[in-house]
Amino acid sequence: MSVVAFAPASTANVSVGFDVLGAAMAPVDGTMLGDRVWVGDTDGEFSLTTVGAYAHKLPEDFSQNIVYDCYLAFEKAIFDKGVTSKPLQMTLEKSMPVGSGLGSSATSIVAAFVALNAFYNEPLSQHELMLLMGELEGQISGSLHYDNVAPCHFGGLQLVIDEAGIVSQTLPSFDDWYFVLCYPGINVSTSAARSILPAQYRRQDCLTYGRRLGGFVHACHTHQEPLAAAMLKDVIAEPYRAQLIPGFDAVRDQAAALGALATGISGSGPTVFSVLKDVEQAEKLKSWLGEHFIQNEDGFCHICKIDTQGARVTGTQL
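Structure for Homoserine kinase, as requested:
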């Protein structure tokens, strides 16, 4: 038996919701932007191999790979349920750049857990899986937050609750919004992006953050698109993280000139996103970013919409 699971890229924060908003992303051209994990039977010992465009960025020792940690955590979880382990082997197809601001670690973690759960005929509930995903993501980033793993797993635009036994819930989103995502090819580590943030914030910034987040959630539920777009402004992270992304101000200006509703930093960066309603303008921005923002051959740009599927089993072969 074998199974393959895919987990999509995600943009965390979505400007207005630091650590509590995240959206799964799907390129409109059909590109599978995310990671895949294969799990199969074996007659020998456990093994984990890595393939894909960014496999060379991962540790050579598989015991240092987060997918191996996922395997160990999953085995413990099913042991606690009385499920007998099977000899298996795994392969991670690493198609997401590390430190890109697109939930790279989350895609590996979510794909691994979804594949393992399918391989074992779903012994863990979706809630149990999500708790494990958050725990493993916390090992990478240094703190527990679900704004990448929740949309990556469930799809859609997720509001992290993390109260009353609820990790996150799906917000209504706007079907005619195009997200132009551009990764310039440089890396910004989540820990470095967090360390640049102040330890304390002014009362006015906290009030503005709460007002805009509340306004955005309300606008989503009441289908007030102009209001939702107006709320997509970040007073928590962007004023500090923008300096880590060369050319960010120029991107914002160019996007605005092309009619963008909003522009922001995806997660910790350096990927940036702009929201547009006109696909032709989105194509023009994508072309401009390719010429003026992407810095090397590792960079890329995609026009996306929100991926409503989230992680899924896609077959039995990579």
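The CA atoms of residues 156 and 308 lie 4 Å apart.
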